[in-house]
Amino acid sequence: MTDFVSYISLFLSEKKLTQNSRKSYAYDLEQFVAQIGDRLDAYSLRLYQESLSELKPSAQKRKISSVNQFLYYLYDKGQVDYFYKLKAVEKKVVPLQEVSLIDLECLYRKTKHLSGQLIALLILELGLLPSEIAELKVSNINKEFQILTVKKSEAVRILPINDWLMPYLNWKDGQVYLFENKGKTYTRQWFFVTLSAYLDSLDLSELTAQKLREQHILRQQKSGVAILDLAKKLGLKSTATLEKYYKNGY
Predict the structure, then answer these.
(1) What fold characterizes domain 4-76?
(2) Which end of the chain is flanked by fewer CB atoms within 10 Å, N or C?
(3) Which residues on neighbouring strands pair with residue 181, listed in sequence order?
(4) Active site annotated at which positions (predicted)?
């Protein structure tokens, strides 16, 4: 089993970098290694690439370049048998289509996939991103006032928890994160696999975190929430990505 973390400093020591560039490389590579863990294969790399889709093209390009250089270094040093190489994340231009509400009453039914169910409901009811769910702490949830606090960078959002979601918010005494693995949060890969397994159990394999979030937006639009208010609730800096749902000018 290769300890990829230990090779980051060795890799950087062979490169002539400024202090700022070295910090940038180290940050990107430590983030990459933290996500793939000890599993370097086509599947873990695909999940990592998908995680970059939320970033700006310039940030994606930098991270992909850093990781590809590191992957070649591992291959050149004989630490991996195959030279894996990431490709730039291309955003496909999809023709604008009419998006409609889906009956998702089945998400509230009893299931053995409790973690996957809660992830799905947090997206559907609150519009949270998987990355935001991963960082949720028990202390962010106030059951008495039915509110959930989302902290992202310096921004803080206070979201109301409706009566539909409340019964599913449970945790053990002493727990720090809502989804906790020995005192720490789970990896992005775990959230992806857990949500997919739950949706597969309901024959809803076509659904993804992104599509569930879209259903949240549709439900908010249909209930009359103003586009500016929804953008704030979702933590968006502009309403650009919401405009296609607000054709009627709510």
Answers:
(1) DNA polymerase; domain 1 (1.10.150)
(2) N
(3) 184
(4) 245 (o-(3'-phospho-dna)-tyrosine intermediate)
Sign, CA torsion 176/177/178/182:
negative
245 catalytically annotated:
yes
Query: What is the spatial distance between Cα 122 and Cα 140, in angstroms, rounded to a whole number?
Result: 13
Rounded CA gap, 59 and 52, in Å? Answer: 8
d(CA 57, CA 167): 40
C-alpha radius of gyration, the chain, whole number: 20
What is the C-alpha separation between 146 and 166, in angstroms, rounded? 8
Q: Among 7, 25, 245, 250, which one carries the catalytic annotation?
A: 245
Q: Which residues contact 121 (CB under 8 A, 6 or more apart)?
A: 107, 108, 164, 165, 168
Q: Please state, in angstroms and as integers, the Cα–Cα distance from residue 53 to each residue in 28, 84, 110, 111, 128, following that order.
A: 15, 19, 33, 31, 16
What angle do helix axes 19-36 and 57-76 make, rounded to 10 degrees? Answer: 80
Class at the top of the CATH hierarchy for domain 105-245: mainly alpha
The closest alpha carbon to 17, from 77, 69, 93, belongs to 69
**pTM assigned to the model:** 0.65
Cβ atoms of 150 and 157 closer than 8 Å: yes
Each residue's pLDDT tens digit, 233-247: 999 988 988 988 887
Residues 135-179: tens digit of each pLDDT: 999 999 999 999 999 988 778 999 999 999 999 999 999 999 999
Tokens of 179: 């989804």
Using CB atoms within 10 A of its CB, is residue 199 exposed (0-12), middle (13-18) or buried (19+)? Answer: buried
Domain boundaries, the chain: 4-76, 105-245
